[in-house]
Amino acid sequence: MVPLVLEKNLWSPVPGEETIMNVPGFWLIRRENQEYYPRGTSYWDRCVVGGYLSPKSVLESFERVVRDSINWPAVGAALDCRVRPVVPSETIALEVQYETDRRLFLEFLPLVVFEDRVLIAKPHRLAEFANVWRQSFREAHTSRLQRADRGDGGCRCLCLKLLKGVCKVNPALGKLDSGQLTAAVLAVSTRKRDWSPDDLAERFLLLIRELVGWLEEGCLPCPLDPKVNLFSELTPQEIDELGYTLYCALSEPESLLRT
Fold this sequence. Notes:
It is found in: Mitochondrion outer membrane. By secondary structure, this protein is α+β, with helices and mostly antiparallel strands. It has seven helices and 13 strands.
């Protein structure tokens, strides 16, 4: 994450559900006090579109710096590896090849913090919402899971890691992202207190059943903000395909490992 420094008196967050777009979990960042601080007062005024700070414009500005202003071959040579920007990419990403058959991908996302809200410049999947910033619950969700595991020696984080791995190797589940899976584990964790490592398989199957149920409803409420539907960017077809794949896995869990 790459934090942006915004002047507090020049910028304010606007909840997406309070706009005509009605997108809970997303925010606009409005330019304020232009009568006293005209355009150009802030460095980020160059990224304003229609009176709001554009995440797309911020990403493009940052990408130009990453792509054109940094000598990545020289950086890689100094680190004894190969470093290069990933093109094309929805976000700003670097590929680091440190062995012949081993690579690491690093993703950079500009973020803005307003009090306890973390807003990131990760584009909405629908083009008409290109000007909104995504609220990130990742750190808060992960912290809660880690605290719960430390408290009872549970397997929540291990179950999440297993679920992420399954979705990574199975193309049919590729539309489920880390944020959705983390929220799912956290939601189940609040209802099921016993997460002994001996119950890992049982809890994993329980998560699959719960995910099938949320997909049937087309809604996965965010544990920290229930009005936010973490499935809102999935199309009906994607939801049907995900639900069918996971439903079949309930009777044949090994199918999740087929690529």
